[in-house]
């Protein structure tokens, strides 16, 4: 038996059904006995949505009103009634089992499954298998229109059936016509058999995606892709704590390939709010693209096309050690961060305790290390069931030794990516353009004092630029210090959604935070927090800042992060194709000429792709995000470039011989190699205290005993 099902939402209709996240408001169904060609009672049920604001198209097509829907039952009650009524009709027809049949994929995959997932109740098993009438019709009548172009009306017209929709109520005509189409397909001239239903996966299958062999083939061959690019999407704007299961829930109703969720990480091993998702076929991928700007909690998620090459670079790399670790399937993976470098397997097992036993004991632990064998403080742990994993997550921020440990859900793809990124001497995916042209450092630097004369903007749209921020702040732009806007970029050189702004005084910063907090920029609200320059640097090192206060970075030990990161203002660099440029003033005209004249002469630059400059970085953990501080918002006076290049500067080093120059370095040399080269040498930190602005925390780090040189 088939249960012919039709539905409508409060929003878009037809090919865009479910693309706008609107709730279901109508279900119509009828049981069809394929053997006796008898039908049961036709049922029509209105559904009360949480939001009864109907779109114009919905009102016009369906004729429904908010008043009528307000008297209906909610979706969970309607689905219960559906099961009961279908069971009764089957008994009357002498049948016991059935399969749903709908007009296309959208009602089941894009409406029912996502909505019930968001409302936290389960669909019955019948909604995980269904026949797509359009596909069945095209199989029966190959000369008909393509599946994507089919509608109930075109199929009826092809068969010469009546198509006057005004004769019946909305939904009733559609179901009756679908039943007539099915009977035509069952006629002696066609004798169509329904044999291969569409299926919806009950849950996302975790575990290794087993693409690492393809990845190495990809590295060693000239073939550019080994995964079908028509099956991969990129999701952007994810909450940082999102797991692969959260992403699978966002795409509920669509079939994701096993191990097909790859969380993207930055150079510090932290999730950057993006993920690559691989679906079982291109049809599922196309449906996923229709969920662009759907919501995960209070955040909207952007969904774009991606390539198989990108997916392999994130999810495909692994090593024998990782392959062995991930060989145990159906395991829950937890990531531990901030472990003491001296921590052993016994220490970790003791920390977790008997209430959350690790699968295989020591074999269920994987420590992440740098290429030279030093521990990074990260580890992955396997648990055999969700209960043990939940017990482990309850130990989040508990103490091991003298450090608190962070625990997060993780994925097989994240294990592969983290381990491979740490193991390789160069990043897996080179993202930032090679910086080769030195730029004269600006006279403005981020202050490190305790005066709260700065504000932090969090949650900016990824497309937001300097102009958008200035417009967002309105009249307060007149109170921004010269060179006081600092856009924070992620490791891919893209905006991270954060920005820091230095105001002229703490009072001005307070007023901006009060006036602009949760104000809308484009289609997102932006959080604005008052902070100090010291707190700003603290956040750039990996800490967090919100209205509840300041949380320290998960790791601050000197041997992990050289002290220069906290305080030294690294000289900026621009790509070779960038040109020196004297732009017009980017700040509003509310700045007085006197204020501009009082500022020291500056040199401004215009990068080729955006008005942002990339900073040198080193992939130690934690290192600050890429944050340009040298964008000129005040036009450089004529001749400033030449003057700055030829000016004689006072030597800043207090004594001769304190600075050495190295020539002949390999092009791939990093900070680690240079520090290793000078290992054993000391420097006198007191001689350097006058070179830069230092917070008390940074100064204490500088003055600690070191076994490496600071240049």
UniProtKB/TrEMBL annotation:
Protein name per UniProt: Epithelial splicing regulatory protein 2
Gene Ontology cellular component annotations, sorted alphabetically: nucleus
InterPro entries given in the database record: ESRP, Nucleotide-bd_a/b_plait_sf, RBD_domain_sf, RNaseH-like_sf, RNaseH_sf, RRM_dom
Similarity annotation: Belongs to the ESRP family.
Organism: Pygoscelis papua (Gentoo penguin)
Domain of life: Eukaryota
Segments forming domain RRM: 231-308, 332-412
Subcellular location: Nucleus
